[in-house]
Automatic annotation (TrEMBL):
Species per Swiss-Prot/TrEMBL record: Prevotella jejuni
Keyword terms of this UniProt record: Cytoplasm, Transferase
Keyword Coiled coil among record annotations: no
Keyword Cytoplasm attributed: yes
InterPro entries per UniProt: Aldolase_TIM, DAHP1/KDSA, KDO8P_synthase
Localisation: Cytoplasm
GO biological process, one term: lipopolysaccharide biosynthetic process
EC number: 2.5.1.55
Catalysed reactions, semicolon-separated: D-arabinose 5-phosphate + phosphoenolpyruvate + H2O = 3-deoxy-alpha-D-manno-2-octulosonate-8-phosphate + phosphate
Record's protein name: 3-deoxy-8-phosphooctulonate synthase
Chief location bin: cytoplasm
PANTHER family from the UniProt entry: PHOSPHO-2-DEHYDRO-3-DEOXYHEPTONATE ALDOLASE
Family according to the record: Belongs to the KdsA family.
One GO CC annotation: cytoplasm
Length: 252
């Protein structure tokens, strides 16, 4: 179990090496300032975008090269997500935490492939499942020799084009695994509500984090960007990078 809160932060998708470097430098500064555990997050391929025309990222090979460069230069631990089983081994050679997207959290082969890398597996709770339902994805990982499994809350479907967070899912999932992360940015999304893209309300991100702290979350997930409105994916719900410092200060 984590001895202090873990913070997962980074841009939604890899847009450029320059962007990764800007974010990484700030995360290193915050890591040193607060003596916390910060994990750098970015996706090499956003395969679950609303539209086929949405920006997806540089792809597996190039994306892993760019993430490795961040690890080599800044010494940060890395997290990225996979969408297909064949990606697990290559990703596991670079990152420290392999994330399973919410929509894919019941995909047995994907979970098993991630578990077999020996890396931490972070499973996002699907928008259509309860916290207690997550014992089955965890069991799949554990029976596939996973060394450590985390769970992440990210809201539930609430009719069309909206999500709602039932914070009782956090203590429910802590009965399954010791470490439960709150995804504070994806939980404020409004899926497919923006004329072919997902939109959201980033103003609620700090409140999501503070509420999760009250319910016992052991870590927090933030997608951040220096100019989020210009971001190429999840622009509306990413937090301004400059606001991460103050928010972390309230959470530790």
């Amino acid at each position: 179990m984590m001895n202090k809160p873990t913070f997962i932060a980074g841009p939604c998708v890899i847009e450029s090496q320059e962007l990764l470097g800007i974010v990484a430098e700030e995360l290193v500064r915050l890591n040193n300032k607060y003596d916390i555990d910060i994990i750098f997050k970015a996706s090499f391929d956003k395969a679950n975008r609303t539209s086929i025309h949405s920006f997806r990222g540089p792809g597996l090979e190039k994306g892993l090269e760019m993430l490795q460069a961040i690890k080599d230069k800044y010494g940060l631990r890395l997290l990225t997500d996979i969408h297909e089983s064949y990606q697990a081994k290559a990703v596991g050679d670079v990152v420290d935490v392999i994330q399973i997207p919410a929509f894919l959290c019941r995909q047995t082969d994907l979970l098993a492939a991630a578990a077999k890398t020996g890396k931490i597996v972070n499973i996002k709770k699907a928008q259509f499942l309860s916290g207690r339902d997550m014992r089955y994805p965890v069991q799949k990982c554990q029976e596939s020799e996973a060394k450590e499994v985390w769970l992440t809350e990210r809201g539930n479907c609430f009719g069309y084009n909206n999500l709602v967070v039932d914070f009782r899912n956090i203590p429910d999932m802590k009965e399954i695994v010791p470490d439960v992360i709150m995804d504070c940015t994806h939980s404020v999304q409004r899926p497919s509500a923006g004329d072919g893209k997902t939109v959201g309300d980033r103003k609620f991100v700090p409140s999501m984090a503070l509420a999760a702290k009250a319910f016992g979350a052991t870590g927090y997930f933030f997608e951040v960007h220096p100019t989020p409105d210009a971001g190429l994916s999840d622009a509306a719900n990413m937090l301004e990078l400059e606001k991460l410092d103050e928010l972390i200060g309230k959470l530790i």
